[in-house]
Pyridoxamine 5'-phosphate oxidase family protein
Amino acid sequence: MDLDVSFAYTEGMTEAEVERHLRETPHGVLSLADGGDAYAVPVFHHYEDGALYFRLGESPDSRKAAYIEATETATYVVYEVAATDDPDAQRGWSVLARGPVREVPAGDPAYDAVTINERFAPIRIFDEALEEVELTLYELSIEELAGRTN
């Protein structure tokens, strides 16, 4: 290893710190896979009682839906880096949650529009007609959870 390369030591977070970041940072990147093909998408989340929820808008040919269906274990990443003028003084943290993702049944009380609007930022629609977008709620059952900070 080249010892002239700059390194920053990190340390693990406590469970309380990890949960605080999941509650206070409402967005991250959901990583999915279909065999050897990966797909990552920025999403908003809601964290409650040890579970992560994602509200996604899906059109008839939704790539997200296809990848979620094919994914056995998803990874969700929440992170933040504070920009500084001095790269050696840069501070940040990251949280990784891993586990299976399942669709929450449509009859679940979490599907109530008031509840969804309280828990999530407005849904982002990209080049789709609103009437073609179906709202789907997913839960990531956390099997692994870790956080690092420096």
Summary: The mean pLDDT is 88. The radius of gyration is 17 Å.
